[in-house]
Amino acid sequence: MSKRIVVDPITRIEGHLRIEVVVDDNNVITDAFSSSTLWRGLETIIKGRDPRDAGFIAGRICGVCTYSHYKAGITAAENALGIEIPYNAKLVRTLMNLALFFHDHIVHFYTLHGLDWCDIISALSANPAKASKLAFEYTDNPIATGEDELKMVQQRVKDFASKGSLGPFANGYWGHSTYHFSPEQNLIVLSHYLKLLEVQREAAKMMAIFGAKQPHPQSLTVGGVTSIMDILDPTRLAEYKFKFETVADFINRAYYPDLIMAGMAYSKEHSVLVGCNLKNFLSFQEIQVAHDEYLLSSGYVLDGDISKVDDVNLDLIAEEVTNSWYKYEGKHSDGTPIKPTDLLHPYDGQTTPNYIGMQDGMSIGPSGKEEKTKLLKTDSKYSWIKSPRYDGKPMEVGPLASIVVGLARKNPHIQEVAEDFLKRTGLTTAHLFSTLGRTAARGLEAKVLGDYGLKAFDELVKNLKVDTTTCAPYVIDKNKEYKGYYIGNVPRGMLSHWMRISDGKVSNYQAVVPSTWNAGPRDSKGQKGPYEMSLIGTKIASLTQPLEIIRHIHSFDPCIACSVHVMDISGNELGQYKVDPSFAKF
Ligand code: NFE
Ligand code: MG
């Protein structure tokens, strides 16, 4: 008899994600459903607004990748209006983007995902002297692993535990049979977990140096950047460089060695060597460090075959809502009605809610026995996330896609770091197609940016000697129709924003977001998205402690706020604004 397990909410992510799985008599997952239970829809708010506002509103989609949607909204307007921004502005945007990638990747590995790999309770019984020596096995230059420091870390957590409360570490599945670090290895990761809290502040400050604040920086404007005083101030530049080096140092001396340690310790744990059943990957170039040089490559790879890679065709990106709580309205140009099963290109996308609720059912309760509960209507609509498709196919986006596409493109930086990781862990390229591989890929991407990102800084300093332009002039003609887009990679994968402008106002706006690609429900053909596919076939060791489910899903770094985009829950008008686009001349 099959049974249903519900994990809701999956914590340590941004937003509310619900996972329902069906397991067979051997506790193997035979079906899986991914659902966002939050109502959002920020695209609707942007409609009718001045196109120059889109970035500022879109930036509020999420407080995690706070810069991504801001930059995407500003860039979509520039693309629509045919604006080529100055080189200095491109490089400053890269420096801000590096801050975001650093921040999100290190915070994900330690704060959001680390405890799926590191057993805190085991760390309490570690021998700090032994752990301090052990750290040198994974790097010549470890950080935060001196014997005294490790003793203090252990004492801090012991104090927590002795008060009967583990604070942020409460409710973990400590002692689970799929944890594989030794007590000493757990103590090393725990120490880096605490060190991260200092380092992430530096990454946030990196953003604020050129962005004025963090989260939600505000120095991008349609046409360029406004941080001219900061980029002409040598002390601000030096401050950025110092902070960049601090974070890159942490990546090289803690994050990367910890991933090598995990690769070795978990190389026999079957449940982390699976978790990537959909091997279609989509990625887009990002992190411009010179006129024609990007650190991350564009392309798509199907069925895990990295001997083939093709260019991304923007016309083939589309979303359908067969199993999403939305409806499609209106007619196609040939007069036929638009149906939820239709794949709509984002230029013509719609965001109209159609919630149909939950149903009564049974699932495994905390006691391990089946209990009455509310379940998703999984034979119908069951998520606020749409189903994006590329040429009709579901695709995984994110650091694993960026590494897979980079390898297929023979991107030298990606090849260098991936080969080093595989050599040092004894894993093979095939192992990358897994939850372990996805977790490692994020660290490999962070290392590439840490090792090579400062080229953008050097370019900026060089360029400023001959050119201090930061903004390009432009005119918005309200009698013209425009359309434009942003497409690129953000920390959780490929992001695109699509804008139409008429009468000087935004007439349609759609964001197709990384977590939408990954977390979306199945489509009209029954094709599951990456989250759902990742779960199929995994055996759960304990039905009341589904750590395997959590590990698979966390490895994608879900952001549900991003994937559904916020608006007022009652659909209330938030304000009225008069827009006069002729004012835009300067
Ligand atoms: Ni809210 Fe985001 C990133 C975007 S999401 S975190 O990175 O875009 O998937
Ligand atoms: Mg959207």
TrEMBL record:
Heterodimer of a large and a small subunit. InterPro entries: Ni-dep_hyd_lsu, Ni-dep_hyd_lsu_Ni_BS, NiFe-Hase_large, NiFe/NiFeSe_hydrgnase_LSU. Keywords: Iron, Magnesium, Metal-binding, Nickel, Oxidoreductase. This is Hydrogenase large chain. PANTHER family: HYDROGENASE-2 LARGE CHAIN, UPTAKE HYDROGENASE LARGE SUBUNIT. Its EC number is 1.12.5.1, 1.12.7.2. Mg(2+) binds at E43, C62, H565. It comes from Helicobacter muridarum. GO terms for molecular function: ferredoxin hydrogenase activity; hydrogen:quinone oxidoreductase activity; nickel cation binding. Fe cation binds at C65, C562.
